[in-house]
Amino acid sequence: MSQTDESVPHVVILGAGVIGLSTAHVLSEKYPSYKFTVVARDLPEDVDLNSQAWASPWAGANWSPIGGYEEKKYKRELITFNKLWDMISSGLIRTLPSRICYAEPVNDAKFWYKDIVRDFRILDEEEVPSGAVAGVAFTTVSLNPQLYLLWLRNELNARGVIFLRKRLYSIQEAAEIAGPQGVVINATALGARSLIGVEDTAVYPIRGQTILAYAPGVQEFLAHPLGLSSVPTGEATYMIPRPAPHGHVLLGGTFQEDNWNLSVDFDTARDIWRRCLQLAPALNDPETRILGHNVGLRPARRGGARIEAQWYSLPLESEFLPPPAEGAEKYDFLVIHAYGFGAAGYQGSWGAAEEVAEIFAEHFKLVA
Ligand SMILES: Cc1cc2nc3c(=O)[nH]c(=O)nc-3n(C[C@H](O)[C@H](O)[C@H](O)COP(=O)(O)OP(=O)(O)OC[C@H]3O[C@@H](n4cnc5c(N)ncnc54)[C@H](O)[C@@H]3O)c2cc1C
Ligand SMILES: *[C@@H]1O[C@H](CO)[C@@H](O)[C@H](O)[C@H]1NC(C)=O
Ligand SMILES: *[C@@H]1O[C@H](CO)[C@@H](O)[C@H](O)[C@H]1NC(C)=O
Predict the structure, then answer these.
(1) Which CA distances in Å does 272 have to 65, 143, 292?
(2) pLDDT (tens digit, 9 = 90+) per residue, 333-348?
(3) For the segment 294-344, what is each residue's pLDDT rounded down to a tens digit?
(4) Residues 6 or more apart whose Cβ sits within 8 Å of residue 231
(5) Contact indicator for 20, 30 with CB cutoff of 8 Å
(6) Strand 10-14 vs strand 331-339: parallel, antiparallel, or unpaired?
(7) Cα 227 from Cα 29, distance rounded (Å)
(8) pLDDT in tens, 238-263
(9) Where do the annotations place D-dopa binding (predicted)?
(10) pTM of the full predicted structure?
(11) Do the domains 10-54+146-203+303-364 and 92-142+204-301 sit in the same CATH topology, yes or no?
């Protein structure tokens, strides 16, 4: 391939959440001569704006088992766990002793993740907190999402990746930014529901209300129970200590499917506090302070996350768009989708990015 400007492939990553940024990170490392642009409505520096329009600033975020075994998820989350574990010395990631409790007896099938995490074991009866009948302990990792997103952004800046703030309404616009030889990576999460092109109605929110606390006494990830709608009313109690700032712990929470409400509900907040106190007496300390209340929408997808390539015929024809200009050139355009990670976007991020990179390598030969 010659190195004139037009012949350098242009990769446009739509979305600057943990999925878009991690994908940009992996691809820009593998293909340093290509041109990369991240296009998003919300950007990492917006974490101070408290925008709830995207999920990534509001995560816990740790690696924890969610749902049952699934082959692709397993691979993604294994890759990510190991990568995060290797990053501990950077200070962005901490190791986290953990206990998950269950209200019912458990069997081995629940422990599909036992070789991913470290030090996995089943709790002795006297270690199980009151109100639970069984539990497991292991060592996992956590990170502070807002600091982590800024780190990813800085890495990409240093590699010359361009950031463009723009809200897109259709894939046609993304294709125009990329140019006919370009590729678009679609990491728009819940935004994928409404973009004109292929509106994906399988995408839905799982509302998560949380409390950010200063609670230096809490040094363990505790959860009871954890998972998607394991409780019909959507309560899931968990505490995620972060590597930084000192003493910061995220207290949760709720798992409310199809609930788009972004307001903090104070009855829910009181209930979260009560449930966490019951699970972690260490919270009951004169030093503990509430720093804030948050609501975030986990961008889930019925059928699981979608990582796959799709060719579009452009210009796009849609009942929601004006007809294409007469004589507009017709061409096929490649989009690689990567959205719908629900409650597990951080813990699947590096694996998802690798999966996108594999698809990219396969298809790019066709385009180049
Ligand atoms: C309370 C809570 C706790 C969580 N805890 C954890 C945890 O402990 N571990 C874990 O792994 N995960 C956790 N998650 C889930 C995690 O936050 C998400 O899975 C992850 O952030 C999804 O990342 P994303 O990049 O797919 O989407 P997002 O972060 O939502 O990013 C989407 C991006 O696309 C952009 N975009 C969307 N539509 C458009 C458009 N039309 N035009 C331009 N740009 C657009 C947005 O601006 C944004 O930049 C939690 C989530 C919540 C809410
Ligand atoms: C991203 O995927 C969603 C769901 O298929 C779709 O609605 C949207 O148009 C896609 N965006 C692009 C730029 O391909
Ligand atoms: C959203 O939640 C708030 C707080 O609980 C509540 O007052 C409001 O009525 C809810 N809005 C909708 C549309 O349900």
Answers:
(1) 21, 21, 13
(2) 999 999 999 999 999 9
(3) 999 999 999 999 999 999 988 877 777 778 788 888 888 999 999 999 999
(4) 225, 255
(5) no
(6) unpaired
(7) 34
(8) 999 999 999 999 999 999 999 999 99
(9) 238, 298
(10) 0.95
(11) no
From atom 3 of ligand 1, which residue's Cα is the shortest distance away?
Answer: 59
Ligand approaching nearest to the C-alpha of 192? 2
- What is the full DSSP assignment across 121-183? EEPPGGGSPTT-SEEEEEEEEEE-HHHHHHHHHHHHHHTT-EEEE---SBHHHHHHHH-TT-E
Confidence of residue 196 (pLDDT cuts 50, 70, 90): low
Residues with CB under 6 A from ligand 3: 261, 263, 265
Ligand 3, residues 52, 258, 259, 261: which to mutate, most atoms within 8 A of Cβ? 261
Q: What is the largest CA-CA distance in the chain?
A: 75
Residue 34 annotated as lining a ligand binding site: no
Ligand closest to the CA atom of residue 202: 2
268 is in an annotated binding site: no
Give me the residue spans of the domains in the chain.
10-54+146-203+303-364, 92-142+204-301
Ligand 2 atom nearest to CA at 310: 14
Class of domain 92-142+204-301: alpha beta
Task: Place 3 in a pLDDT band, splitting at 50, 70 and 90.
Answer: very low
CA 231/CA 234 separation, integer angstroms: 5
Question: Residues 22-71: pLDDT tens digits?
Answer: 999 999 999 999 999 999 999 999 988 888 899 999 999 999 999 889 99
Spell out a b/e string for 107-116, using b for 16 or more CB atoms within 10 Å of the CB, else e.
eeebbebbeb
Nearest Cα residue to atom 14 of ligand 2: 171
What number does the ligand 2 atom closest to the CA of 14 have?
A: 13
- Topology of 10-54+146-203+303-364 in CATH? Rossmann fold (3.40.50)
Strand-pair category, 256-257 with 203-214: antiparallel
What is the C-alpha separation between 238 and 251, in angstroms, rounded?
Answer: 6
* Residue nearest ligand 3's atom 14 by CA: 261
